[in-house]
Automatic annotation (TrEMBL):
It comes from Brassica napus. It comes from the Eukaryota. It holds the Pfam family Methyltransf_29. One of its GO terms (biological process) is methylation. This is Methyltransferase.
Amino acid sequence: MAIKSSSADNKTRSSVQIFIVFSLCCFFYILGAWQRSGFGKGDSIALEMTNSGADCNIVPSLNFETHHAGESSISGSSAKVKTFEPCDALYTDYTPCQDQRRAMTFPRDSMIYRERHCAPESEKLRCLVPAPKGYVTPFSWPKSRDYVPYANAPYKALTVEKAIQNWIQYEGEVFRFPGGGTQFPQGADKYIDQLASVIPMGNGTVRTALDTGCGVASWGAYLWSRNVRAMSFAPRDSHEAQVQFALERGVPAVIGVLGTIKLPYPTRAFDMAHCSRCLIPWGANDGMYLMEVDRVLRPGGYWILSGPPINWKINYKAWQRPKEELQEEQRKIEETAKLLCWEKKYEHGEIAIWQKRVNDDACRSRQDDPRANFCKTDDTDDVWYKKMEACITPYPETRELQVFPDRLNAVPPRISSGSISGVTVDAYEDDNRQWKKHVKAYKRINSLLDTGRYRNIMDMNAGFGGFAAAIESQKLWVMNVVPTIAEKNRLGVVYERGLIGIYHDWCEAFSTYPRTYDLIHANHLFSLYKNKCNADDILLEMDRILRPEGAVIIRDDVDTLIKVKRIISGMRWDSKLVDHEDGPLVNEKVLIAVKQYWVTNSTSAQ
């Protein structure tokens, strides 16, 4: 039964609500002091607060009046809160859909065993994945590009296996990343300079890139200073923790592989794609892997192949491979590239660069080529768990993109052409205005939002990428996730804005290691997944990928948020529910939460 509130009660609650928001402001300030130490300890918080003179004034433009009877009016609110226990220490690096033991039960052909294989419902872990002993807050960017605390990813194998290639070095309590790689032992910067002599990287034409088989993502890390955002992927394999290292460095990356399933990205997403000795058999399966790269490559985009079999006549002895094998491998690559109507722009040393044609005007002859099998699907962006095919994705109508940063807020071609049913230019621009307002309100609540404290950010229901566009900064990046069950497929728009993202179904675990994101944003995600899967599982997955002391912003209707708040009260999170920036009468609210610091074998939060 609902409890009726008197006028006096309402005034009291109003005062309490103001006090709560005031406390929240101070809470985030203290949190910032705590986290800046890098060790999750608050030894000098009081002294820092006194010396710096924290300003925790309530923002006058926000109305924090109580608007709802609160949790006391919810039926069944007296029920005991479920407490989620820590998982065993063995699960500190658990990746539910890339579990090594489960992977080994699948065929090795075409890398099937390295693809996503999620645990069935009966085998799901419903516990809190712990951080390892000694875990500390990662270094801030740009220091994180070069240094990772050893305790956060305590794996030394790569320091031995890749020692001469300058990938990674162990120095005391940190790993150092000199910027080298298998194909660029002298450093990624010099390697990128060589690529930039052919590919226009300095004027905003090339903004998004795909790195296949990325290693520790040094290529993506060093592209950052050139304002290029790389989406890097590599399998969870014998090179333990390479993607984990990439994310600890503050570089966008996911666990992934080119196997039998299409890549979880939309058609025409990337301005550039790259393989540096990535061990992908590009000539195999009738050129299917190159055709998949062609699908996700924008017209006019570039493909870089560095390593075998390029210039095999000179390099076959160093590679210790038969000449005939390398010759045949390069022949197949050249043949498929020609079929795709790519133009070779450069070949020198062990590097070759092709460019995809801007349109198919120069490719008319392939229409009569019996080898040219064109994809029949009407929706080339329908890729989630869809089998890869050896077929050519047809060119779209010519659509010009503006250079970055202009394209961030310009109307994307998918919108202006009417490709997304029911979405007008006005609706898109209104969405942009709304997200600028939302982000402005977020910054009033959490003043650390754009300071560099949060480097790796995820938007779990990204829409058009409005949140990421409003918060865009050299200090951070956003993984824009478009749920596969979303009413409209908007990930193509996200990429046309010069942002990056991925498709995902939140009824399953995300393709990443634990503790890889500093801040997670979820806009109406729980309403979207209502009756689709268990909210507990979604929140446990959020906890798995969120770093200790990381923040969460959940925007949804008030009834949904009260239920969510109840669940997270058993998850070692601290949370506050605040009003919409337009006032207390708006049914949409915002739930702010912070994950407590604790490590394996801890009996309580510290």
